[in-house]
């Protein structure tokens, strides 16, 4: 049955209601003879159930800084006096308790030594432990209700509940956007200027008709040749990037407000006769809200 410190098991214990026992650190511890033996240094809880099992009592200079464990069932807590009274406890019992320095050393044998010191305090009560032998394999804290149970009249408690709005977010699909491509055809027209060569034959009348070299006249087979060219259009298709389309998502934030009626329990106090009631604790809690 491993034990852990309350702050490790429940880090938010100071901000929540853990049966009204989350803020007793520093409370003074007194024996049945009204002798102060130390103050509360820490709280140990069951790592499975979270139930408080022990209060760590720092004896201070009284026993040279020794720390001991006090079962929660023996603690009678007075919030108004900021003290804890332990019925049947003596200074001798505190001296006989094993020193608490490391949580890892708290095993069954250690706890049995602690329980053996306190059991005489509850032997004559209705919550006395069983007379059967204790076994490390079958032992449970229910075997010692007088040490660990908070069912006595001085430990009665009344829980006040309240409702709080808890907001969560759920991600769900609202739609889908598909971006694709298709091919459209159209007729394109392009104008290409071209050049064509043509032969122009001009005839003129010479001013002088006499031939200086008669041998060049009247020869057959004489031909004048001239090459003629023209341009023809050449049209082909090439693919170019017309534009680039990027597809991405952006997140837009919005605040959605919701109103709901919540309930809270308040304490109704009805007293008869000359009952003494300490209201300081309730007033302090209301001021802290």
- Total of DSSP H or I helical runs spanning 4+ residues: 5
Q: Stretches where pLDDT falls below 50 for ≥5 residues?
A: 17-21, 126-131, 281-285
CATH architecture of the domain at 3-159: Alpha-Beta Complex
Instruction: State the secondary-structure class.
Output: alpha+beta
Distance between the termini: 37 Å
Strand content: 5-15%
Taking Cα atoms only, what radius of gyration do you get, to the nearest Å?
Answer: 52 Å
CATH topology of the domain at 3-159: Photosynthetic Reaction Center, Chain H, domain 2
Amount of helix: 10-25%
Q: In one word, what is the shape? A: rod-shaped
Q: How many strands appear in the DSSP assignment?
A: 7
State the major sheet. Answer: 7 strands, mixed
Mean pLDDT, to the nearest integer, reads: 80
In N-to-C order, the SSE pattern is EHEEEEEEHHHH
Can you identify the CATH class of the domain at 3-159? Answer: Alpha Beta
Let me know the CATH homologous superfamily of the domain at 3-159.
Answer: Photosynthetic Reaction Center, subunit H, domain 2
Throw out a few tags for this protein.
289 residues; alpha+beta; Photosynthetic Reaction Center, Chain H, domain 2; seven-stranded mixed beta sheet; 12% helix; 13% strand; rod-shaped
